[in-house]
Amino acid sequence: MASSINTAGNPAYKGNDRLIVGIVLAVVTFWLFAQTTFNVLPSMRTELRINNSVGDMAVSITALFSGAFIVVAGGLADRFGRVRMTYAGLALSAAGSLLIAATPCGTAIFLMAGRIIQGVSAACIMPATLSLMKTYYDGEARQRALSFWSIGSWGGSGLCALLGGVVDSTMGWRAIFWMSIVVAVASWTLIRGTPESKVVECSAAPIDWTGLGAFLVATVAFNMVVAQGAELGWLSPVILALSAAFALAVAVFVLSERYCSHPFVDFRLFGNTVYLAATLSNFFLNGVAGALLIVLLLVQDAFGLSSLQSGSMTAGYLVAILIMIRVGEKLQQRWGGPRRPMILGCATTGGGLFLMTFTHLPVAQYVTVAFVGFTLFGVGLGIYATPSTDAALSSVGDSRSGTASGIYKMASSLGTAFGVAISAAIFTALTEVNGVSPTQSLAGLGFDQLRFAAAAALWFNVTMALLAMAAIIFGMPRRSCSWECPS
């Protein structure tokens, strides 16, 4: 087991603003540029001539592969160096963006390959950069650095719809991914020269390929069942086979992690109640990302808004999250811990989502209500972001920071992937021509099929926000303190 941190012969090195900017640019290659697909999906479907289920999978598969590989990438960052792993992630980001930007019409192979590579890129970048901030910043300086990291992730997700709409309407959606390559190069330039950080005396433990393989099969099978179930039929042989593969892979994963000497996911970390509550709530709250996709699809498909107009609806989300991230940091300091601001953040997010469920309103009224909802959505996520991240990282020791960061961010990515996939599946299932939507019987109440389907999918997102709040209330002690998991 590792016992100390190697900083490449410069243990006195302290992180500066240049490093923070470089790290934030690395983070936005995923949370900002890769996530613009939420808003430009209709344009991509039209130009590339892909069907709805393939398009939905292209949106969620990046976060899915990020979640699948992020823990392994965190462990590799501990062993071989967090700076090196960040460089690797930036190179993969550029490669994935290149494939997407060059995708020919009439095929989805380049698109799907590029989205998968973007997911692996995010897996490399997120735990490595979090560990760099834990290593090179202390106390309030760390909380400030993590706030900017959160601005890159949560703020990037807030800006993605607006950026996608602006670029799509002026230069076309492909330009987004050319821009992402430029940002990756800028990030590499700013991070260059940072002393390497890695765990010394780290045994060359073998990678748990059984656990990783089972986990990957389970997540991909689940995503395919959710994405293709409505189109193929929930009782079709393909869906039943995928469901069986999911169940078998989950069983193999659990058994492997319990008895493996070097598990892919170290269950001992979850013995820390602070870390467990932060990670579980992080999973559920990231699951509400599906609301962004559903509202943008609704206003474009049902109301006829352009990608620029729909993206403008999220402007309040962007402004709120950028302001409230620092507020969440200050609330944590004032209230003496992360618990209360995390609960407040989840409750506010849920309130914003609740407003978005009023899809029966006339177009102008709904756009106004949704704008307010997105603003509250951003306020809540902003308050939650820094306290949650700091609670997760501060509750484990340096020797496990890479692995712990990986699991925490795996929760983010998988929450996003599953939330988007399930939200899209609900929306698609209820808008099928021969679907199960009961909207015909509700026609007298002013519902149409698209509006009803969007409302149902958005209520799923409200539930995810409530589950996140419950995880904190019942799982996190009222007086949390640093606690390192037993070795």
Task: Describe the protein.
The chain has 487 residues and is mostly helical. The protein has 2 domains: 14-194 and 264-475, MFS general substrate transporter like domains (Growth Hormone, Chain: A, Up-down Bundle); 208-263. The protein contains 17 helices and 2 strands. It has helices at 17-33, 37-48, 52-80, 82-101, 109-136, 139-170, 174-191, 209-232, 237-259, 273-286, 289-301, 307-312, 315-335, 339-356, 363-394, 401-431, 449-475; strands at 4-6, 198-200. The protein has a two-stranded antiparallel sheet. Helix 14 packs antiparallel against helix 15 (363-394). The longest helix has 32 residues, at 139-170. Mean pLDDT is 84; it is low at 1-9, 435-446 and 480-487.
Helix/strand layout:
Blueprint: E1 4-6, H1 17-33, H2 37-48, H3 52-80, H4 82-101, H5 109-136, H6 139-170, H7 174-191, E2 198-200, H8 209-232, H9 237-259, H10 273-286, H11 289-301, H12 307-312, H13 315-335, H14 339-356, H15 363-394, H16 401-431, H17 449-475
Antiparallel strand pairs: 1-2
Helix pairs in contact: 1-5, 1-6, 1-7, 2-3, 2-6, 3-4, 3-5, 3-8, 3-16, 4-5, 4-7, 5-6, 5-16, 6-13, 6-15, 8-9, 8-16, 10-15, 10-16, 10-17, 11-16, 11-17, 13-14, 13-15, 14-15, 14-17, 16-17
